[in-house]
Amino acid sequence: MSWRSFVGLFCRSSEYTLRSRWPHNFQQRCSFRKVAKKPETKKVEEELLPAHFESTEAALHRQPPSRSPRSFSRLLRPLVFTVGFTGCSFSSAAIWQYESLKTRVQSYFDGQRTKWLDKVRLPKRGEAHKDLIELWNSLSEGQRTVTAIIAANVLVFCCWRLPPLQRSMIKYFTADPASKTLCSPMLLSTFSHFSFFHMAANMYVLWGFSSSAVSILGREQFMAVYLSAGVISTFVSYVSKMARGRMGPSLGASGAIMTIVALVCTKMPEAKLAIIFLPMFTFTAANALKGIIALDTAGLVLGWKMFDHAAHLGGALFGIWYVTFGHELIWKNREPFVKLWHKLRTGSGGSKGGH
Predict the structure, then answer these.
(1) Is 127 exposed, middle or buried (0-12, 13-18, 19+ CB in 10 A)?
(2) pTM (predicted TM-score)
(3) 189 noted as active-site residue
């Protein structure tokens, strides 16, 4: 296992600036921000990795950040949604694992392959088809698991390129505590990137850490953690914005990815990491995680505007908490729920059936 090509993306501060004409008069900052109408070109600025985008100091000087009343009651619905969605994610993951194990056991005793495997392997369509099957089979379980996540991010990125969809994209795929639509964007914005470079960097890091994370958690638990992390990190961003009175939409996957990175670094603290372009300099995963948390903490306290440090901290702290306590509290206590599902699945006489 080598993470030499991944950790550098988290350990450096870089910004990608995209200049384009934006039809809806808003600017991407740790998110997107509305700015005064100008007849000339509008700037859209994005950071490389973090889940949320930030504008430059010059743009902020031109247009002071909007400050909304600190109505913390607006956070009640997002809080309920966060708790409810997290519970549903882990419940669904437990059911998914149950059904997967049941299918494997039935296939073993029946001496048959699973249906989806038959559909993939039976057709013979030439060398290209065989090469795709061989490529898929060569991937680790973690890489196959995140393929669906990457595909979803690519699809949303393509939707951003369609002008007729942009109003809907802004409404549902950017998370803003001042918006009328508060809850669904907390999840949908986790799959949303406006810049190709930003999306590619995030997916590159996710791909790199996927094998280690899935080997630690299993694919079902990994998906529950990843989706929950996206919502939790967005909620932390909501709280931070509301506390500072600085509103603005945000988007990106880095909050969830920070959870995966923190989880792996906490579980494997002695693993050697290196900066992407300086592989000769190595350091432990534990030190890398400490550096990331220190940087985001300083950014949050000092009010740095390059990244959405609150979302990053929320994701990282959730990853540390989950691998330290959450796995024991949540995942290892899923048995009563699985037994209930088994009874519902098999009917009133479900106690006679076996797993």
Answers:
(1) exposed
(2) 0.76
(3) no
pLDDT at 135: 79
What was the pLDDT predicted at 124?
54
* Distance, CA of 314 to chain centre: 12
Instruction: Report residues of the chain scoring pLDDT below 70.
Output: 1-70, 107-127, 276-277, 348-355
Query: Is there a contact between 269 and 285 (Cβ–Cβ < 8 Å)?
Result: yes
Q: What are the φ/ψ torsions at residue 195 (nearest 5 degrees)?
A: -100, 135
Q: Are 186 and 177 in contact (CB under 8 A)?
A: no
Q: Which residues contact 18 (CB under 8 A, 6 or more apart)?
A: 44, 45, 46, 194, 195
Residue 54 sits at φ, ψ, to 5 deg, of: -135, 145
Q: Which of 240, 239, 236 is nearest to 300 (CA)?
A: 240
Of 203, 225, 188, 236, the C-alpha closest to 319 is 225
Q: Which of 325, 298, 322 is closest to 312 using CA atoms? A: 298
The pLDDT score that the predictor gives to residue 104 is 77
Give the tokens for residue 269.
């603290």
Q: How far apart are CA 339 and CA 311, in angstroms?
A: 36
Q: Which of 195, 240, 254, 309 is catalytic?
A: 254
Annotated catalytic residue: which of 192, 312, 327, 342?
312
Whether 309 is catalytic is: no
- Residue 61: predicted pLDDT: 35
Cβ neighbours of residue 343 closer than 8 Å, sequence gap 6 or more: 350, 351
**Residues 67-74: contacts with CB within 8 Å, 24+ apart?**
67/245, 67/246, 67/247, 68/178, 68/245, 68/247, 69/245, 70/242, 70/243, 70/245, 71/242, 72/242, 74/177, 74/182, 74/242
